[in-house]
Amino acid sequence: MAASKSETATCVSIPKLVALHARTIPNSPAYREKEYGIWQSWSWAEAAEEIEALALGFLDMGLAKGDHIALIGRNRPYFYWAMVAAQSVGATPVPIYQDAVAEELLYVLDHCGARFIIAENQEQVDKVQDVQEKLSALEQVIFLESRGMRKYDRTNLHDYREVQDNGRAHKDKFTEELTARQESITGSDTCAMLYTSGTTGRPKGVVLSNDNIIKTSEASCKFDNLSARDSVLAYLPMAWVGDFIFSLGQACWSGFCVSCPENTETMQADLKEIGPSYFFAPPRYFEGVLTNVMIRMEDASSIKRGLFSFFMAHAQKVGGDLLDGKSISLVDRALYQLGQFSIFGPLKNSLGLSRVRIGYTAGEAIGPEIFDFYRSLGINLKQLYGQTEASVFITQQPDGQVRSDTVGVPSPGVELKIADNGEVFYRSPGTFVKYYKNDKSTAETKDAEGWVATGDAGFIEADTGHLRIIDRAKDVGKMKSGSLFAPKYVENKLKFFPNILECVVFGADRDFCTAFINIDLQAVGNWAERNNVAYSSYQELAGHERVYEMIARHIDEVNISLADDEMLSGCQVHRFLILHKELDADDGELTRTRKVRRRVIEDKFHDLLTALYNGSSEIFTETEVTYEDGAKGSISATLAIADVTPVAQKGKAA
Length: 654
Fold this sequence. Notes:
Blueprint: H1 5-9, H2 14-24, E1 29-35, E2 38-43, H3 44-61, E3 68-72, H4 77-88, E4 92-96, H5 102-112, E5 116-119, H6 122-131, E6 140-143, E7 157-159, H7 160-169, H8 171-184, E8 190-195, E9 205-209, H9 210-223, E10 231-233, H10 241-254, E11 257-260, H11 267-274, E12 278-280, H12 283-298, H13 302-323, H14 330-351, E13 358-361, H15 368-376, E14 381-387, E15 392-396, E16 409-410, E17 415-418, E18 423-427, E19 434-435, H16 439-445, E20 452-460, E21 467-472, E22 477-478, E23 484-485, H17 487-495, E24 500-506, E25 513-519, H18 521-530, H19 538-542, H20 545-563, E26 573-578, H21 598-604, H22 606-613, E27 618-626, E28 632-640, E29 642-643
Parallel strand pairs: 1-11, 3-4, 3-5, 5-6, 6-7, 10-11, 12-13, 13-14, 25-26
Antiparallel strand pairs: 1-2, 8-9, 9-19, 14-15, 15-16, 17-18, 18-20, 20-21, 22-23, 24-25, 26-29, 27-28
Helix pairs in contact: 2-3, 2-10, 3-4, 3-7, 3-8, 5-6, 9-10, 13-14, 13-15
């Protein structure tokens, strides 16, 4: 029997929610993990026992109230249990991106002063040991997988399961203490500390309280009617606030099941096997999947391509209306059902999205064509707008009000306002407590009345109440002519093309706009194969004359659309180059959540930017890169610079 509203209302912490589900729905699945090709499953009662054993083990090891315990590895039930166990004893979990390099790991561990860290395997333990001498606070390392560590010094290195076994063995000794700590937890106590992506500098530790997470989870679950009957695939980084809310906050509020894939490479296959009803993915995921679909269709027979084109055209016409419950003719409905049987259903099944009842995307703007493609298939994909400091949710799109050009209305309990300079502000129950050890940034971001500056520029539609985001407020500027410069708006338009993986547009205080382009190796590689374009490396393909011609055509299309926009027509791209390497988080060019570090790129590729504006037709450059093992190297190339003719705004000369 599921918990009643009055029972959940008394739960002010995640450990209490877990205990409630263990009592009311003990046999319902709580966690699944695929290991060695087999799905393992734990009920809420079993998960609660695993968490209790680990919490008792933490007490045996001396984990104190207020301590920070870091976690690094891929999504696994053991890590979610560890976060709840840490909260149970009054400690604060601090998840770290699993692909963090030593310098990033050192910064977070040193900044938060973690006494304990749980590392998944030898790779992560080695990273910790590489920086451990520089960390005065770090005392204990706990690992999940022992492979390769037989001869490691075990003085301060512990097996996760042995910690649990010690907890079970000392249950009588520590149960009273554990109960006392759990009962003392309040809504204002810290639930977790999550680090920002650090697009403009060092990541900041965002302190989120139990009230922040619990109240946000409650409101967002009610908004989409999430319940114990739902399920989610946990594959996004645990250090990201979205995964924390979806896979811990909402899961523990509603009681739905969290499934963890075997690894990142098997994620798509595991998604198909699990078939979750609740799914989140960034725009890049949906773009990549659609690119793969279109590549497969290019290789299909002419009959299959014809059927796909015919039914998809019909789906684009009526699919969204059907999803929104609008009336369509019987003929259109019957034709759509035929497409569902022959095209849409098999396609959704192959993508693992057959059972998705609620789908969300956020983080960047998603192309209207891509967004409409998924909704035309009958997938209820919606957009939300959020940030770490808000416990994710700032705006959401209600069913029946889903559009590609807005991010929705304020989430339940959220207030919005737009400053005179166009910056978006909000306040809500999810508003963060503070930035850890950074009172100055806290005061700059959150005022005395609780209003938080998002750093994004936008406006609220007067007739619908929907929020539309234009760009990062700090990136919105002026061209030398005085016209508006909004780089992200242009970049998102360019990234709508599957051949363009990433781009960075420049133009503030300049006469015209230019762009760095990263091609999508898979999409452009497939195009090259079909068009008999030979290449042996990313660098060679990126520099090919025909690839430049193709990218120029994409930029032409974007310029045409910008020419029709009176406010942003000055943002047309005049010159571009295709970078000789992919922008990479390991090289500091992207954040761990794949956001562009614009200032870093400007400094690092200053020679390329100069060449774009001084009339050069090519530029030789040498760039430092970081390899997978952390070693440094360099690559060099001579890059071509191409010109694009801008399009005249209606009624004006170009």
